[in-house]
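pipeline stage [seq->struct] | target=Replication restart protein PriA | organism=Halovulum marinum | residues=730
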Amino acid sequence: MSHGRSFPQGALVGVLTAEPLDRVLDYKAPEGGVSTGDFVVVPLGPRKVAGVVWGPGEGGFDPAKIRPVAGLLDVPPMRPEMREFLTRAADYTLTPLSMMLRLATRCPGLGQPPGTRDVLRRGQGAPDRMTPARARVLEVLEEHGGAGFAPGELSQLAGVSSSVLKGLEAQGALVRVPEPRDRPYDRLDGSLPGRPLSDDQTRAAEALRATVATRRYSTTLLKGVTGSGKTEVYLEAVAEALAQGRQALVLLPEIALTGAFLDRVEERFGAKPAEWHSGVTQAERRRCWNAVAEGQAQLVVGARSALFLPFRDLGLLVVDEEHDSSYKQEDGALYHARDMGVLRASISNAAVILASATPALETWANADAGKYARLDLPQRFGTASLPEMAAVDMRTDTPERGTWLSPGLVEQVRARIEAGEQSLLFLNRRGYAPLTLCRACGHQLGCTHCDARLVEHRFRKRLVCHQCGDSQPIPTDCPSCHVEGKLTAIGPGVERIAEEVTARFPDARIAVLSSDQLESARALKARIEQIAAGGADIIVGTQIVAKGHNFPLLTLVGVVDADLGLMGADLRAAERTFQLIRQVAGRAGRAERPGVALLQTYQPEHGVIRAILNGDEEAFWRAEAAAREAAGAPPYGRMAGVIINAPDEQRAFGVGRALAQNAGGLTRLGAQVFGPVAAPVARVRGRIRVRLLVKAPRGIALQAALAAWRSSVQVPSNTRVTIDIDPQSF
Ligand code: ADP
Ligand code: ZN
């Protein structure tokens, strides 16, 4: 890839835009010339769109028809590392390069000079009359503050019309100001002393500092039990990157964790880092993007999309809770942030730290094979010990009819309440009940657009489709037989468990933490802090509670249904169950109070449950690895999913069968093609999904073969074929 090659006025240049064209377009360099990497504006049909000069033009068109570049954007040029990263990520994931560019140019108002846009901020004035709509606007302002809001964004976030904003503006409760220019982030001071570390921590921290100091690519698995102080340790690696004058990026799997992390960074380095995720306002994101490009932002904490920020000199990437499935982007460009992070770092000569108590099997295997270094923190920090784990055998310790908690678990919760300690009841199911059934005719309530059941959400008083998000009020009579009062909720979700504990412990303070609550990151952080400070006796939660929160008073974790994730044929079922339950159990007994984790199960002798209980992780990984290897499954073989999304079954299966018949190129390389079959949820939002699965040995040029295969088949209009490299579930 040429580095900043320049093209004089009139020379033919290739410009990549984020338009879905999947090709670089030819233009003429404008007056003053352009260089590779420059952000430009080019005419496209009647429009003008932003793009990046990608290299020399291809030529071959009538030179008279080639239009000149319309202008340059005031943005630091895209660096060669970024162009290489986007190219290789596109090749690896079989995603059009234009779609990758879109990820890399997600800066609101890209290239508009600062100060040319107006933002709305809280003013001194008070509204003359407080309406619910006005209150919501003020609440949003209160929550985000910072750089202010683009007017459209504010009305959207608050769910109010622009006239509400105008009213507030007229009264001085809102003021319109030019977007502030160049508000630099406060300097982080890498030379401030950290907390004294334990011997294990010191060893790990020194090893990590050394890898950053090489200024070369490397990946290290930092495997440490929950509470071992992984964060404390990788912040030392961040300190080293700061000392080197290089930038660092920390990825977190959950926005709700960033608040606590920002505080920890501030405590360690004296200032807050830049933040990048969907909960950050446009103006803040723009500020972050620009400061990252200019090298002014030293540390960014963010979601997976932060990988596509234009770092000037990335020296360290940390992927915290690296096993977390939310790192896989499941729509648009299908990429895994861990794997793309390793690619990004290898191009930028950066060190990677993958931190987890329960690494992904892929990561474990890479460390086992010596591709990644590995550091272990086998003990909790200080005197804290790991929770004791035990099974509750539901065949003998059976809950009463219509309840879900065994007498044994209920007694343990009671004992915690009496001791002034907290209990966490974990069930990875949102809502009140997963199924609503008519006891008169047997009809099950389903979504009209999807092959999915409607899930009752009693707090919201609605039935919700977890596939498409559509919802409706809970009916009183059956939509099928119209008999009244026979609709019955079957099975528990977290809301139902909360109802049960409320009935059993009417005086206890109960908090429900579920991933579907419509809360801002800040409100959620406040609620989590309140729980951590002792503001609840019983926490009932979905997988959101499994991730990295510290609850010092929590001494009991009850897993309501340890068998839940073991059902189904998914190859990762065992791994996921193991990770999730170990992770959630790790919440117990953090501070200096010993903890207990109780697993309600109907199959205590199941291999995975036994492995969770006895804690012999290496044995579990070895057994899993052996099973995967025998099946030729990842990471020992390769897989790709093909998803065909069509308006009807005929078109979907037509394309699927054509692909299956055309698979000679793949099978000659030793790959196998399975399907087409209907996807697990075959109909979503009224569209049909059909899948094929490709299994291939390692070491073949799989992507090239897949690309050729896909283009060998005619795809009818309104039908999409997506290839998912390394699918997370199959
Ligand atoms: P992990 O990420 O491995 O679960 P954390 O880094 O969150 O662990 O640390 C767990 C708890 O132990 C935190 O409350 C943290 O502040 C504390 N801790 C860890 N290491 C130290 C240390 N060296 N000195 C003081 N407190 C520590
Ligand atoms: Zn639906």
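stage status: PASS
auto-comment: The chain has five domains: 6-105, 116-180, 199-377, 388-432+491-625, 637-725. The chain has a mean pLDDT of 90.
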